[in-house]
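User: Run a structure prediction on this.
Assistant: Running it now.
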Amino acid sequence: MPDRYTVPEPSAAFDATMADGAVIKVRRHGNPDGPRMVLSHGNGQSADGYYPFWSLLTDRFDVFVYDLRSHGQNAVAPESHNIGALAADCGGVLQAIAGRFGEQPVIGVFHSLSALAAMLHAQEADAFSTLVLFDPPICKPGGTTEEMAPRFERGAAGTRRRPDRFESREALAESLRRNPMYRLVQPGVPDLLAETVLRPAADGDGFELACPKEYEARAYDDAVRFAMQVDLAALRCPVKAIGSDPTTPFSFFPGVDLGELIEANYDFVPDTTHFLQLEEPEECARVTIEFLEELGFA
């Protein structure tokens, strides 16, 4: 894997306007003759930050990536950053892609927060032919709010404590290199994340997080309530859940036997954490393609 990643210019890019006026920038990469794939990211991250993973899919798939509202290349959407809005945005993005490039079956590939939003949307609409979900925040059968809440509370508290402004992109990259949560990511990932999750500060003094940390924390605050609403049996398409290693620190479900999630066709990537697509991108791509081949989608 390279020490530095450069995300190529998309073959197409456009603004998708959501029902409440929020604007989401959608970018197209890959093989326009391949199956359509729509991909997004986790809380506080960016779609381009996942390039080490999705770049391995562009030979075979027509890949559309988008940042969640108030993330990445999108402007901050005031007073409308909540998981219900993210679920609605998932449908809005799919509609916008179909409006420009025609109706086609869609493979959804999502991580963490975007996986939760996609599942909530897929419960209500025949939006996807299949879903591949990385470390999705799913409550195991019989699980309770009390069991799940501490994980989200820790995420919210940690987010609110950390800085949201940096003198330079390199300052954030160095901070990520020292952060135990990112110790397993590929060498070039800290620089890539610093490039894609920061924007020049509004006052011209350094750089600030594209997604305000209070918005990121608010998603953690809401997540347990929405995760409890996910009904795997109600999803209207085949689902593959690919988790991080439940025995490692910083796994989304440390110590939980996710093998109980039979409905979600669960598997995990050994020796990875919640950022598994940035730690073992080749293995994550292999498992994704293998599943899609079994269904005849690749």
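Residues 83-101 form the longest helix (19 residues).
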